Model the fold of this input.
Amino acid sequence: MLVLLVSACALPSPQQGGLPASGAALVGQEWVANQIAGVSTVLAPVPRLRWASAEQITGSGGCNAFAGRAVVSQGALQVGNLAATGRLCVALPQGGQEDRFFAVLESARTVRLVDGQLVLEDAAGQILARFAKP
Done:
């Protein structure tokens, strides 16, 4: 019984959230944004994020498809080399939502799994975006 208590103490708290050891833990998972840069109202078409491999993300900013490198190590995140299609999306009612989404991806430094959501944070630990399963 003592072993169970010690093991339970080692688990991350719900507030702390789980830190994925690597991108391999996220492969194949798709996430839909429900908060971007502090804005909880995410307009359709909703940005999506998917770990295509241990070091590659793909998805949609809501208008343009994108792909890029995403390296995860014990929750630390490095996103780079993002490339997006060049569709003209000014007619969409998103008002810069896609630009904010791409900026959040590039400035995120930590990824956590908290209460069934994927959370991206900056270097200071501020939440940049939240994602839920579709």
Remarks:
- Confidence is low (pLDDT under 50) at residues 1-16.
